[in-house]
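idk why but the lab printer keeps eating my pages so im just putting this in chat instead. protein + magnesium ion:
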Amino acid sequence: MIDRAAGLVSPMTLLWAGALLASLTTSAPAAERRPNFVIIYADDLGYGDLGCFGHPTIRTPNLDRMASEGLRFTQFYSAAPVCTPSRAALMTGRLPIRNGMCSDKRRVLFPDSGGGIPETEITLAEALKSQGYATGCFGKWHLGHLPQFLPTNNGFDTYYGIPYSNDMDRLNDVAPPGREAFWNPKIEYWNVPLLRGTEVIERPTDQTTITRRYTEEAISFIRAHQEEPFLVYLPHSMVHIPLFRSDEFVGKSARGLYVDCLEEVDWSVGQVLQALRDLNLDEQTLVFFSSDNGPWLTFNEHGGSAGLLKDGKGTTYEGGMREPTIAWWPSRVPSGRVTQELGSTMDIFTTCVTLAGADLPSDRIMDGVDLSSVLFDEGPSKRKAVLYYRGTTLMAARLGPWKAHYFTQTSYRKDSQTRVTHDPPLLYHLGHDPGEQYNINEAHPEIIARIDALVAEHRQHLDPPPSQLEIPLAVTNE
Ligand code: MG
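predcted complex ->
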C-alpha cells in the first residue's frame, strides 16, 4: 500500500488501484445517480444583454463559457412578462391563469399583499423533495411573503433571500422623489428584509453584497449536500432596479452601473459552475440559466436591452418574454450547440421532474413539456406553441414560427393603459421577422385560423380561480 512517510507507491498498488477504479467506473457510473438541478434566474435581464447573445460591450465570460460548454436557446420563453406570474410558472410548470398568480389590477405581489402561491399547487421543490432531493432557495422569491407562502413552506429545506422585489418597501421620507432614487441608489432608500427561513435577519438589506451572499449560500448548500441529489434555485435580485453591486465590481463595466451588476451575476454563475467542477458534481448536474422577464426599458441605461426583439418587460412582444437561456450538463448536454427549438420556463419543471424519475402531477393540467430531446439529442422540441398572457388576458399566441397578436399594449409608458384590439389579429413570422415589424395577416388567413383553433382549444380547458395578487394583507391577517 501507500507508504505515506516515504511518499512511495508500489507498482502492485498502482495496478490494484487501477483495477478498483475501473470496476467502480463500470459498476457504478456517476450518471446512474439521479441528477442534481441548479436553476439560476436573473431578474429583468434582456435578451440582448449577454456577450454570448451578441451584446457589443457587455462582458459575460462565465455565461459565455457556460454556453460554449452547453446549449444556448434562442427561442426560450418565460410564461409572463413580469416577476410574480413568471416565477409562479417556473415553480409549478403551469400558466399563472390556472392558479391565481396573475391579475389585471396588480401585476405582481407587493409587501401589502395577503396572497401567495396556493397550498394546492405542487412546486418543483415539493415534487423533488418527495423523491429525496435536498432543496435550497437563495434569492428573490416573490410568490408571497407571509410565512405560509415562503419557500420553506413550499418544498424548500432552506431559504435565504429578499422575499420580493428589491425596489419595494421604499422609504419616501428618506429617498429622493421619483426616479431620482434609482439614478444614485442608496441602501437605506428601500427597507427590504433579508430572510433566513421565515425570520428577518437584516433590514434594510445591504443590497451591495446581495449577489455575493446569495452565491456563497448556494455554494455552501451544494457542498453540504454533495452526497445526495439536490435542487438549488438561485433567483438573483439583480439586475432589477435599484442596482447594487460589491466593491470589486464598481466601475468595472464599459456599459455602466447596470452591467457592473450583471458582471457580478456572471461572476456568480462562474462560482457555482466551478464549485460543481471542484466537487466532481459537474457531470451529474443540469444547470439552467434564464430570466424572469425582459428588460425594464423605461429605466434608460439602468435597464437592459432586448437586442433586436421588440419592447421589453411588461409587454407580450418578444422583448417582454423571450429570455436568454442556457442549459449546461457536461456529460449529457453536448457542448457548444445553439438551438432554435421552442422552450419555456414551465418546461424546466417537467424536464427536471422527469429526469428525477418522478411522476408528473396527473390531477391537473400541466403546461410544461419534457425538453430532454432538445437537450440531449438535438431533436425537435415537444413544444410547438407559446401563449402570451398579460395578467389574465391572452394577448398573443405563437404556433411554430407564426405569432398572432389579438391585443397589443405597451408597458410602463405614458400610453401603457391603452390596449389595442386587433381583429383579425396582427400576424408576424418570427423566423423571417424576429423584431415583429411586418404584419402579414392579410396574406395568411389560414395561419390565423390555425392559431384561432389553438386558442379556442386552450380556452376550453381553463377554469381560472380568484387572483391571489388582489388579496389585501389585512384579510389574511384577520
Ligand atoms: Mg423581473
